[in-house]
Design brief:
One of its GO terms (molecular function) is sequence-specific DNA binding. The protein has 275 residues and is of the alpha+beta class. It is built from five helices and six strands. The C terminus is likely disordered. It binds a DNA duplex (14 and 14 nucleotides) through helix 3, strand 3 and strand 4.
DNA sequence: CCCATTTGACCTCT
DNA sequence: AGAGGTCAAATGGG
C-alpha cells in the first residue's frame, strides 16, 4: 500500500507536469526542443507509474536524497525526491512539533524542475494543481535563494495545507518543495480520498472516487465543463473525454492511465481492498 | 473592494 | 543568540 502511495505521487507529479505544460504552452511556441523535453518528461513520469503498476518496485532505500521516481532510462533532472519523515532528521521533527503542533507527522519533500518558461518570466515553481497563497519569505542560512512559504488559499475553509518552496543552490533549475499538512479543502461534491499513512502530507491528493479527467486541464478552449473549482484547483471530472479536439498531452496522460488493465479510473488502479 | 504579495517584526526552539 | 517559521500591516492589481 505504501507502493500505492508512491505510485499515486508519481502519477500526480506527472499530472502536475502536464498541467504546468498547459499553463506555459504559449511560452513554448517556437521552441520545439523545450516542448519535446517537457513532453518527454511527462511521458517518462507516466511510464514509470505504468511500470510500477505492472510490477511493483523493490523496497526503497532509506529516504533522504533518494531519487524516488527516477526511471533507469531517464536522463533528465526532473525527478522528484522521496518522502522524508522520521528520516528527515531532527530539524523536520522539530518543525513538526513547533508552534501549532497540528499533528506530529512529517512532511513530504519533492524536487521539481523550474518551468522552462513562464509568462512574464516569473520565477515561480510549477503549479501542482492547488492554489497557494504566499505568506512569507525567508533567507535560509547557507542557501543562495530564499525560501518561500505558501499556504492553501482555502485556509478559510479550514485547509491547513502548506508548502515551502526553495530553489536549490546546486541546481537553480530545480525547486525543492516541502509539503506540510494535508489538504482538507474540497469543494467538489465528491468526497476527497486521503490516502492513509504519512503521505497524507504528500502532494495534492485528488478525489479518487471518480475518474480523473486529465483532459480537464486542457479546458482552456475546450468545452469540457468546469473542471477547475473556484480556487483554481483541479477537480476530478466525471468525464475523461476531451472531445474531438486534439490534445496531445491529455491523450498521453489518458493513454498512460488507460494502459492499466483496461480500467481507466483511479479506482481501477487502486481497487478498494474490501470490496 | 477584495485578494494576493511583500516584508519587517515577532515567536519558538535549539 | 541565531535560525526557521509565522504574522500582519502596507501595498498594488484586477
Amino acid at each position: 500500500m505504501e507502493e500505492n502511495q508512491e505510485t499515486m505521487s508519481l502519477i500526480l507529479h506527472g499530472c502536475a507536469l502536464a498541467q504546468d505544460l498547459e499553463s506555459n504552452i504559449a511560452g513554448y511556441a517556437g521552441q520545439p526542443e523545450l516542448l519535446l523535453a517537457s513532453c518527454d518528461r511527462i511521458s517518462d513520469v507516466f511510464r514509470q507509474a505504468s511500470n510500477r503498476l505492472r510490477s511493483p518496485p523493490p523496497p526503497l532505500p532509506p529516504i533522504g536524497d533518494v531519487t524516488l521516481f527516477e526511471a533507469p532510462d531517464y536522463a533528465g533532472p526532473t525527478t522528484v525526491g522521496g518522502t522524508d519523515f522520521e528520516a528527515a532528521g531532527p530539524s523536520v521533527q522539530r518543525a513538526a512539533t513547533r508552534r501549532k503542533k497540528k499533528d506530529s507527522c512529517g512532511r513530504y519533500t519533492e524536487r521539481v524542475p523550474a518551468p522552462a518558461l513562464r509568462a512574464g518570466g516569473a520565477d515561480i515553481p510549477p503549479d501542482d494543481g492547488y492554489t497557494w497563497r504566499k505568506y512569507g519569505q525567508k533567507d535560509i542560512l547557507g542557501s543562495r535563494f530564499p525560501r518561500n512559504y505558501y499556504r492553501c488559499t482555502h485556509k478559510n475553509y479550514g485547509c491547513g495545507a502548506k508548502k515551502y518552496v526553495q530553489r536549490l543552490d546546486e541546481d537553480p533549475s530545480m525547486y525543492e518543495v516541502t509539503y506540510r499538512d494535508p489538504h482538507t479543502c474540497q469543494t467538489s461534491p465528491t468526497p476527497i480520498v486521503i490516502l492513509p499513512g504519512p503521505s497524507d502530507f504528500g502532494p495534492p491528493v485528488v478525489p479518487l472516487s471518480t475518474t480523473i479527467g486529465l483532459g480537464s486541464w486542457f479546458s482552456g478552449s475546450l468545452d469540457v465543463g468546469r473542471a477547475i473549482d473556484e480556487g483554481g484547483r483541479s477537480v476530478g471530472s466525471a468525464s475523461q473525454h476531451v472531445g474531438d479536439v486534439d490534445c496531445p498531452v491529455a491523450d498521453l496522460a489518458d493513454v498512460m492511465f488507460n494502459s492499466v488493465s483496461g480500467r481507466s479510473s483511479m479506482e481501477g488502479i487502486f481497487a478498494p481492498k474490501d470490496d
